[in-house]
Design a protein that fits this description.
Elements: H1 2-60, E1 77-82, H2 92-104, E2 109-114, H3 116-125, H4 142-157, E3 163-173, E4 176-185, H5 189-196, H6 209-282
Parallel strand pairs: 1-2, 1-3
Antiparallel strand pairs: 3-4
Length: 283
């Protein structure tokens, strides 16, 4: 019985140590999440302004021709997949990688993975990887997004890829994060003109509309990539906070059950000793 009580006590201490770690990780994730949400909200106006400008330009010139505006037909699709650098975030990484796998089915594709988990996943799957320069999602800056944007726009303009799609996790709320896949290039000319038709101003672009449009598109893609990165980082932190909160609650329940078992074992040991003393006295 003594050995059993000792084992239970060691188990309780082990679970208490684990619970301290999960609570600390939850607090760290909560602290980082506030900054990540603020950065995400600050990044949205930049993308919205660029996209509105592109729509205005497409609406102002119905005959605008650009490699970023015209469909390329059949060809290789380049996927930008944003995942996390670490685990312990519930289903965050698994969900976004599953979404990417489903979207790539039956398509000739290459991948630009962002985040260590994405790099490891596509290395194992044998997919063609455009670059591994963005393996740490948490350390990427605006300049890194512009570098990736210029590289992808170059591939599209040269005809090496026909389409650029983005797979990331959209931040819905603290308890909900939704993985999604969206086309970012080439832009849908008809949709752009429709959305910009009612508000495009009479603007004269120098040297010409096409040159200005082609110059803005890399800025647009960098803005989209940075915005998606901010959303993904916020989603990862929210998922990690939720996972660590659940782990802490499970640890508390386990400690309660182990404490109850320990008390029953101790009570049984005390009862057995009393019984032995009484039996010895009667003998």
């Amino acid at each position: 019985m003594g050995g059993t009580m000792k084992d239970i006590k060691l188990r309780i201490k082990s679970v208490e140590g684990t619970m301290q770690i999960t609570k600390a990780m939850e607090l760290v994730a909560s602290s980082k999440l506030r900054r990540a949400r603020a950065r995400m909200e600050r990044s949205r106006p930049y993308f919205e302004t660029l996209y509105a400008t592109l729509c205005d330009m497409a609406a102002a010139d119905p005959e605008l021709q650009s490699p970023y505006l015209s469909p390329k037909g059949e060809g290789k699709v380049c996927y930008i997949v944003i995942a996390g650098d670490r685990g312990l975030a519930g289903g965050y990484n698994a969900n976004v990688l599953r979404t990417a796998t489903e979207d790539t089915q039956g398509k000739a594709h290459c991948v630009l993975p962002v985040g260590r988990r994405a790099v490891e996943f596509f290395e194992r799957s044998g997919s063609e990887i455009v670059s591994k320069a963005f393996a740490m999602a948490g350390e990427l800056s605006v300049s890194d997004c512009f570098e990736a944007s210029r590289m992808l726009c170059g591939l599209l303009a040269q005809g090496q890829v026909s389409e650029v799609r983005l797979v990331f996790t959209r931040f819905v709320s603290m308890l909900s994060q939704s993985p999604c896949a969206m086309q970012v290039l080439p832009l849908d000319a008809d949709a752009a003109r429709l959305s910009g038709e009612a508000q495009h101003p009479m603007v004269l672009y120098e040297p010409d509309t096409a040159s200005v449009f082609d110059a803005i598109v890399p800025e647009y893609l960098a803005g989209v990539l940075y915005g998606a990165l901010c959303e993904s980082v916020a989603s990862e932190l929210a998922a990690r906070r939720t996972a660590m909160d659940s782990a802490s609650k499970n640890a508390e329940e386990m400690i309660g059950e182990l404490t109850l078992r320990y008390n029953r074992a101790r009570q049984g040991a005390v009862t057995q000793e009393i019984t032995e003393i009484v039996a010895g006295a009667q003998a």
